[in-house]
Target: GRF-type domain-containing protein
Amino acid sequence: MASHGSACPCGSSGSSSAIGSGGQVMTPCCYCSVEAYLKTSYIEQNFGRRFWSCVNYKLGRSCRFFHWYDPPMCVHGKRILRQLREKHESLSIEVDSHVSMAEHGTPQKNAELEVITLQLRGELSQLRSELETIKKKNDEDQRISRNVLIMSWAFFSIVMLSKLLSRSTNDESLALLQ
Ligand SMILES: [Zn+2]
Model:
């Protein structure tokens, strides 16, 4: 909503005076006795030119208040403005085409990423199986060393036992001799 100048001088509805006595911009009132608001025209003949309009216009009210705020543009200004608009439109089209190109490029990127992901997955499963092999080998080594330990203990025990037995037999034969 435009806030040019003072409150609405709506004593007289449909005021068409936009400039106050002190050169101050006054907000006019429409035929509904409501403060008008400033809009911008985008039609070819008056592109960018501002005008006062009724706030209820969009609500389908019959108030047809209309008052130009900006003076009409000179022919040269209109021509410059048209050129700028054309330039803007062509740039917009170019931007849109770049955007759509970027969007079309995305599936290709996705496919590349998918290939990389598959490769990484393959490498990962290979590493896992290698790790599994190493684990198994480690378990086997541990089992073997445990068995070796048990067997050496058993051997040691047998040797000790046989020594003890032979000593006791010797003692017995000595006792018999005495
Ligand atoms: Zn109105």
